[in-house]
Design goal:
The protein is α+β, with helices and mostly antiparallel strands. The chain folds into two domains: 61 residues; 188 residues, no CATH class. Helix content is 49%, strand content 22%. It is built from nine helices and eight strands. Strands 1, 2, 3, 4, 5, 6, 7 and 8 form an eight-stranded antiparallel sheet that branches. α6 crosses α8. The longest helix is centred in the N-terminal third of the chain and has 28 residues. The protein is globular and about 60 Å long. The two termini are 35 Å apart.
């Protein structure tokens, strides 16, 4: 199936996905959203107070630790319960529950790779979002979700800003306005993250920008990078240049494993004019 057909299927199924998510909620979506926002604000106040106390040191640091133990853990637990109740990913999340959440958001599994004793999993949506994450095995062999990030290219509706909480760079497209190529932490609150990203803009599909970074962000996880670096540093001829070459090789190899529609979304190289000039603005 090519990208055009896949996008048509995705758009046709969006209403069904939304209905299934609503059916799994314990409360109405608006009530849950307001509760989550309120608890997030309280948790952030505690975090800032703790950070300030730790910087001051001495008695203030001791009080900050107590403040965190008394308020921080309980607020985070409450937030995790609310996120699970809203069928969103909590901070601590089993790999199985995370899969259910992201599949309910329209993500499809593309590939799974063994990385040491863990796994790297690549998911994507045909509207232009790649999600790469890895497992983290805990006691008794429990597979938890480890690191996770969204990789995407995005166009803002007002052509003026980049999405909050992201790291990336703007590029000037030949046939459209500025395109933002970015990544976003996708561990806690993946559904809320997607909602915020799409409030003031939309993902690009296919990608109008093709760089080594865009391919690697979509197909290589932080765990992969750590493992590859450790492996290569054991070699006598290790260098940063060789490390970069290894990353490109792995990304290209994984690219070939993708279904056709995902390949076309990532690398529309056959379209003239899609090689773009960097704006040179680093927002990371």
């Amino acid at each position: 199936m090519d990208l055009r057909e896949k996008k048509a299927d995705y758009e046709a199924g969006k209403a069904l996905l939304a209905a299934r998510r609503l059916g799994g909620l314990l409360e109405g979506p608006q009530q849950l959203r307001h509760k989550i926002h309120a608890v997030e604000m309280q948790r952030d106040v505690v975090r800032r107070a703790v950070e300030t106390g730790m910087k001051l040191g001495g008695e203030e640091a001791r009080l900050a630790v107590g403040y965190h133990l008394y308020f921080g853990f309980s607020l985070q637990s409450e937030l995790d319960e609310l996120r699970a109740g809203s069928f969103d990913s909590p901070r601590e999340c089993s790999a199985n529950f995370y899969c259910k959440v992201i599949e309910s958001l329209g993500f499809e599994s593309l590939a799974t790779y063994d990385v040491g004793s863990e796994k790297t999993l690549i998911f994507a949506r045909p509207d232009g979002a790649f999600l790469i994450w890895n497992t983290e095995t805990r006691g008794a062999g429990m597979a938890m979700r480890g690191a996770a990030h969204l990789a995407f290219q995005w166009c803002g509706y007002d052509d003026a800003d980049h999405p909050d909480g992201t790291s990336g760079q703007f590029y000037k497209a030949a046939h459209r306005s500025w395109v933002y190529e970015g990544i976003h932490d996708a561990r806690e609150g993946i559904a809320a993250t997607l909602e915020k990203l799409l409030e003031n803009g939309s993902f690009c599909s296919p990608y109008p920008v093709h760089t080594d970074e865009s391919l690697q962000d979509a197909l290589i996880s932080p765990l992969d990078r750590t493992q590859f670096r450790e492996r290569m540093q054991r070699r006598s001829d290790f260098s940063e240049a060789k490390m970069a070459d290894e990353m490109r090789y792995i990304a290209e190899k994984r690219y070939k494993d993708l279904p056709l529609w995902a390949q076309q979304m990532l690398r529309p190289m056959k379209f003239e004019g899609y090689y773009l000039e960097a704006k040179g603005l680093n927002l990371g």
